[in-house]
Amino acid sequence: MELKKQQEPLSVKQQIENLKALNLTIEDEAAAMNFLNDVSYFRFVKAYSLGLKPKNGSYYDGATFEQLMELYRFNSKFRQLLFPLIERVEINLRCRIANYFCCTYGVLGYKDSKNFADKAYHTAFLQDIHAEIIRNKNTPFMKNFLNNYKNGDVPFYALVEILSFGTLSKFYKNMKNPDKKQVASTYGIGYTYFESWIESIAYVRNLCAHYSRLYNAKLTKTPKLYHQDSKEGAANNRIFGVLCCLKHLFVGDRHWARFLDNMEMLFEKYTYVDLNTMGFTKNWRELLTLSTPRTA
Asked: CA distances (Å), 46 to each of 19, 39, 228, 285, in order?
């Protein structure tokens, strides 16, 4: 099979002409050119044309550049709403895992493979944290442990502060099942569910951090949903499924209620947004508000 050649670059004006040739209506070309001077054509068109045109085809009649801009701006605002919630989960989880693990196995217990389920997985983890220590060696608290403590060892309660959410998720995944159960129980959640939740939330966190698309996106790291959530129509490969999991982590928390209010206002502002593409059910507000019993 002959490989394709790289496409020649297009000026912003050529990008506009190309979109018009693909049947996209552009009501204000000057505004569109200003937008494409700020947001790359590739990031914008490739991601937000989904559902508005077939692959490698022209736009459906009635599709407009302004609709694409609305989807882009909605995604940006939605991501900005969601990211602080995930940050709260991440910081809280660092604390609870570190507190439990240090008290159970000691502050250097993370170095011993006997404290984990899979030795090979643990070896890979040690390689990851070695790289993180080198990368952060000039931060004040890391310099303190490296230079002033025996063998330059870093206690886990400090080490956990430089781990990515993804590495923290992997750490939890390799804990022994009784240990996973103890940590998950502090949230009132079964550990088999909790393990899949934090892996998926960490994945969504990275999407947010890299300004990626949550709108109309199929997630590759999917959480295991509670039966009552899936029974109501929540799908685990869409962002709404992850919100169903977050709901259980924020039961009774005012930040969650504020998030729902702000999200609803966002939906009202961006009327072209199709909530179905994000997995939202018709009764999404009720489903995300209701504090249902945590049962499988």
From this structure: 12, 12, 35, 30
Cα–Cα distance measured from residue 272 to residue 65, given in angstroms and rounded to the nearest whole number: 12
d(CA 284, CA 287): 5
Structure tokens at 273: 């947004």
Give the span between the Cα atoms of 253 and 12, in whole angstroms: 46
The whole-number average pLDDT for the span 33-58 is 91
> What tokens does 118 get?
């899979």
Burial of 134 (0-12, 13-18, 19+ CB in 10 A): exposed
| Tally of residues, the chain | 296
272, two tokens? 């072209």
Say yes or no to pLDDT of 53 above 50: yes
Determine phi and psi for 294, rounding to 5 degrees.
Answer: -85, 90
Task: Please state whether 145 falls in left (phi above 0), alpha (psi between -120 and 50) or beta.
Answer: alpha
Contact 32, 65 (CB under 8 A): yes
Which helix or strand (DSSP H or E) is residue 283 part of?
none
Handedness of CA 277, 198, 165, 113 (dihedral sign): negative
DSSP 114: G
The single residue listed with the structure tokens 């949550």 is 214
Tokens of 4: 């394709």
Residue at 286: amino acid letter: E
- Write down the pLDDT at residue 291: 56
What is the average pLDDT score of the chain? 92
Amino acid, res. 14: Q
Any bridge partners for residue 116, and if so which?
A: 175
What sign results for the dihedral spanned by CA atoms 225, 281, 219, 163? negative
**Which residues sit opposite 25 in a β-bridge?**
64
Q: Using alpha carbons only, what angle is made at residue 55 by residues 53 and 60, rounded to the nearest 5 degrees?
A: 15
